[in-house]
TrEMBL record:
MF terms in GO: protein serine/threonine kinase activity
Protein name in UniProt: Type II toxin-antitoxin system HipA family toxin
GO CC, alphabetical: cytosol
Domain named HipA-like C-terminal: residues: 179-394
Organism whose genome encodes this protein: Comamonas testosteroni (Pseudomonas testosteroni)
Length: 419
């Protein structure tokens, strides 16, 4: 296989009427070796040009990732665990049909296999024949297909499902709406009745409680605490547990309208998976790369999220669970997402500001860092009071979400601050 040239386009709302050619990604014949990215000369000269990430400065010539096979910003456009599962199953199916061994898939393979219409962010990848990758015969399904998609997602997780004659069709129906998405839980993109793009997170086969309901509860509490969150709702699609549905914040409107350039905190901090990181690293991104006129507001919002995550034990708060949207002259915090009370983890993925023994200690450590968020003690105290007032209502919100008393008792330790 020869090296492949992939054109990288920016289809960002507010940047230009039509997508802009940003540069070229050279995919090596051996996918296990790093891919080079080079900015297009026209992009370097464009008045709205910006570096896709700090590790890709606006200079001419090929640039290689410091680690791995792809720059972090391109990994943000690639799938995580659920999407990779679907792509790997597709490869296994193709290999069986073609009577060959299953290929090992690498980051580049996963990146280029994502369905274009639902790819995360505003970067689009185009092959030499002018087709955006990856094209699919299946469009993003309408909301009316959610019940069927959930049933398929549950069936596809069962052992031995590959032997059924319907398997190939089921997998194809899940590939288009599901390959762009991260996380381990089964999920799918769908088009709501107003044309907007949403994500449905379905129950997993080994769930022991209504996971979606608790994510929705955290989402509601966050909104009540003054945290920016996208539209969301719970859907009962049958099968016992419910599905959490949330609107995609990286779209400016309907499916056919321009997208919004997204980058994870992992990309903009320059950190690697497994490397120690903190909320102050995210604050530094805003200080150094934030959109003019919004830095102070976004720092205050980040501080609010820090306190909120501590108060509800949202401890899986790693850098990929924080993100940014390009504003035109800098980055702004994206709406909060993937917030879940967690009783299994004892510590936050990110350093909150120092050592702590319990939730109260973590809050005290975080509060002591308010200067780094450009907040006075009085401002920080007001935010803390607002966050705690909202989070303390978790039982009332749980009842509104029709969460059982048994599940509330199970999750009570996540809200131990309010006992």
């Amino acid at each position: 296989m020869a090296a492949q040239q992939i054109a990288v386009w920016l289809d960002n709302a507010g940047s230009a009427p039509q997508p802009l050619h940003v540069g070229t990604l050279t995919c090596p014949a051996h996918r296990s070796t790093p891919a080079a990215f080079a900015y297009d000369a026209a992009w370097l000269a464009h008045p709205q040009a910006f570096a896709l990430e700090p590790q890709l400065p606006l200079v001419a010539g090929p640039q290689y990732p410091a680690q791995g096979t792809l720059h972090a910003i391109f990994r943000d456009s690639a799938p995580d665990r659920w999407g990779r599962v679907l792509i790997e199953r597709r490869e296994a199916l193709d290999a069986a049909r073609e009577r060959r061994t299953v290929r090992n898939l690498f980051d580049l393979d996963f990146l280029l296999a994502v369905q274009d219409s639902s790819r995360m962010g505003a970067l689009r990848f185009q092959s030499g024949d002018g087709i955006y990758l990856s094209a699919s015969e299946f469009a993003v399904p309408p909301v009316s297909k959610l019940r069927e998609l959930q049933a398929l997602a549950q069936r596809i997780q069962q052992d031995g499902i590959e032997q059924l004659p319907e398997y190939e069709q089921w997998l194809a129906m899940l590939m288009a709406p599901g390959t762009s998405l991260g996380g381990a839980r089964p999920k799918a993109n769908f088009e709501d009745t107003d044309g907007t793009l949403w994500i449905a997170k379905f129950p997993a086969k080994d769930d022991r409680y209504d996971v979606a309901a608790w994510e929705y509860l955290a989402h509601q509490l966050a909104g009540n605490a003054g945290i920016a969150v996208p539209n969301a709702r719970l859907e009962d699609l049958g099968g016992g547990y419910r599905s959490f549905c949330v609107q995609r914040f990286d779209r400016s409107g309907s499916l056919n309208e321009p997208r919004r350039m997204y980058a994870s905190a992992m990309s903009l901090t320059g950190k690697q998976d497994g490397e120690p990181a903190s909320y102050l690293d995210i604050a530094q991104v805003l200080t150094d790369q934030g959109a003019r006129g919004h830095i102070d507001a976004d720092l205050a919002q980040l501080f609010r999220r820090l306190l909120f995550n501590i108060s509800i034990a949202n401890r899986d708060d790693h850098l990929r669970n924080h993100g940014f949207l390009w504003q035109g002259d800098g980055w702004r915090l994206a709406p909060a997402f993937d917030m879940n009370p967690n009783t299994a983890k004892r510590e936050h993925a990110l350093d909150v500001g120092g050592a702590y023994a319990d939730t109260e200690g973590a809050l005290n450590a975080a509060y002591a860092t308010h200067d780094f968020y450009r907040l006075s003690a009085a401002q920080a105290n007001t935010i803390l009071e607002e966050v705690l007032a909202a989070a303390s209502q978790w039982q009332t919100v749980a009842q509104r979400c029709a969460i059982s008393q048994a599940e509330m008792r199970r999750m009570a330790s996540a809200f131990g601050l309010f006992e």
